[in-house]
Structure formats: structure tokens, C-alpha cells
Amino acid sequence: MACSSQYQSPPINILLLFFLSVSSSLVLSSSSFSPTNSTNGNATSTATLHARREVIKFRKIRARLQKLNKPSLKTIQSEDGDVIDCVPCHLQPAFDHPLLKGQKPLDPPETPKGYNLTSSLDEILMQKWRENGESCPDGSVPIRRTTEKDLLRASSIRRFAMKPARRVRRDSTSTSHEHAVGYVNGDQYYGAQASLNVWSPRVTDPSEFSLSQIWIISGSFGNDLNTIEAGWQVSPQLYGDDSPRFFTYWTTDAYQETGCYNHFCSGFIQTNNKIAIGAAISPTSMLNGKQFDISLLIWKDPNHGNWWLQLGSGAVVGYWPSFLFTHLAQHANMVQFGGEIVNAQSSGFHTSTQMGSGHFAGEGYDKSAYFRNLQVVDWDNGLIPASNLKLLADHPNCYDIQGGANRAWGNYFYYGGPGRNVKCP
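The structure assignment produced for this chain is given below.
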């Protein structure tokens, strides 16, 4: 892939620089002030300490923004407020990694044998930034620009765009993360495929999210857990709105110190110039109306060992290099499909954040969220049905799941729910 050397640097917000200069002046003036009594002295010391902390915080934000926002060949302003930078492929954040310095993205391998989309609903992912026909030039990849507002919403600048560190569980003892999932385990897996419909679930607390995704998992579910994840999510804290957005994630230590969403760290390498990871998906499914679904395929390249991601029929997005992982450098031992929400219980009772469509599984087509055509990739790089699929809802009165199989949809399930209700107080 050819990469141009002509680019423009994304601007640093003038208000941010103004704040830094004012805060620095406040620190200096406060430090030279001599109080006439102990009360004024304590107040001045507190103000000085606060100002110093704010200066340090905003210097960290400025440094993080400079690291994340790369020089671009073109900038696109989306109608939903996003700014998309067309970053030369070799300058995307993944290539900040020491093992990738000086390299360029690889060409995609062949898709697994048997990959065949069967529905007209499966098309190239549509996103709001492309509604006016915009795209990035060849040799570049579209990356959603990170702003100071994004960082200020985060609970921690250091852990920005990282899931909370936790011991991952898939049973009734799980804490604030609740799931309704189908999964297979007990074998060696080299990828997975599924189609899932896209909704706009209500998220009632800014610190919560609602997502639907595929997990590729290996490890012991302890501190050595490796995951590769992709799907759609609504996350007000991460994105600043309630739009469903296409996302990726990875970790090698159960979400502790490694990995991140999208392009927020050195990891996922993008090769596609028409899909922006983290950008809003449009259209979405309508209750009692037309359903919009997307197809996701994740598979391990048998030759180089990297894990590739494809959307729809032929839209290869990019890959996770195999060296990022320990267990997944070989294969997965579990594949999981389904929904996840965060229940912050900020008001003292269960959240009303919705999963999927916000309707229970039993309401069926055009009301409930679904996954269909569930398949896994075997040792011979072939797609086969996800047999012996197990279904699990760890809080079934809040979010549930029901499965089945037929000729049109293969293995499938409906899932989701409204959260807080009479049976889920």
C-alpha cells in the first residue's frame, strides 16, 4: 500500500492552550502571595494545589492528544459532529509500537473456506461520516479524531479507552458487567462469523455502555486472559453521544494494562479507507420495521498468524498482529457472541440501560435483537456451524436469551432486555 508524505497536522484546541497558560499564571501568582492570616494562607495553599493539579492534568491531555491525533492527508467533518482524519496508513497509531516501526500494513489473506453471505441485508457498513459520499484517499485510513472533551469525560486519563480491569466471569457472580451470550468452548478455534442487527439502546448513566459483539477468547479467565472483540456499542463516556458505533477491542491480561478500544493505543492495524472504527452506524433497526444487520468475520491467517477482521461481503477492515498476544498467538479456546451492559447502580437500584433493542428475546423478529448464522473457523481454515452452542443470561429477569436453528439462519438466538423492571428491581 502506497503512503503519501504530504499531510496536515490536526490543530490543538486554542481554549486548551489558553487554559494551560492561565492555570500556569495562577500557580505562579498564588505561590508569590503572602497571606496575612492562617485562614487566607490555607485558602491560598488549597487554590495553588488545585491549580497545579489542573495544569498537570491538562498537560497530560495535550500530550495524549498529540500522540493519538496523527498528521492527515484530508479531514472530513461529519454531520454528527465527528471529525475524521485521513491518516497515511504507515502513520496510524498501531505503528507507534516498537515492533512495528518502519513497517506498512500487510495485504489481506484469503477468507476462510465456506464464507458465503446469504442475505441481502449484508452490505458494506454505512456510517454517518460517509453519507455525503466522502471517503479517504488511497494510502490512508479514516480515524475519528480524539478531542479534549473525550479525555475529560474519562474517569482516568491513563486508562482512557480501556475497559475496567476485572476478573472476567460469565455466571451469576459477575459484578457490574451483565451478559446475555451464546458461546462454544472445549475445542481449538481460529475465528468466528455472525450477522447481528444494529439498534440504538438507551443508556441511562454516562458511565455505562451497551454493546453487541463477538469475543475471541483464550486463557484461563484469570490475569492471563486474551480477547479479541468487535461489534457495535453505545457508550456516552467514550464517544459523548448515544449513537451506536462500530468498535474493536483487545487485551492480553484481562483488561488490566494491555489493550484498548479502536485506535486508542498501538494494536489494531487498519487497511480499509472507507470504514472508520469508532464512527456512528447508520441506519439502525426499527421496532416493528426494517431490520439492519451487519456481518462480522474474524479469522486467523494460517500463514502469518495475524487475526483479521472483515465486515460484510469483502470489506476487510484490518488485523491484530499475532505478537500482541500470548494464548491467542496460537488459537482460541472459546468463542462468544452476544450482548453486554454495565450496571452502575448509581441510583441504588438496577440500571434501566437497555441491551440490544431493549426488548426481551421472546418478542422475536423486528422487536428483539438477534445473532444469526453463527459459525466458527476450524483448524483447516474452514467455516463450520457453531455446534453445541450454550446460552447464558447471568441476570435473566433483566436481559435474557433464546436460541434455535433453521435453514435460513443456521444457528441463531434472540437476546436483550430493558434492564430495570418489576422482576429486575
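Interim note for the steering committee: The longest strand covers residues 177-189. The chain is about 15% helix and 30% strand.
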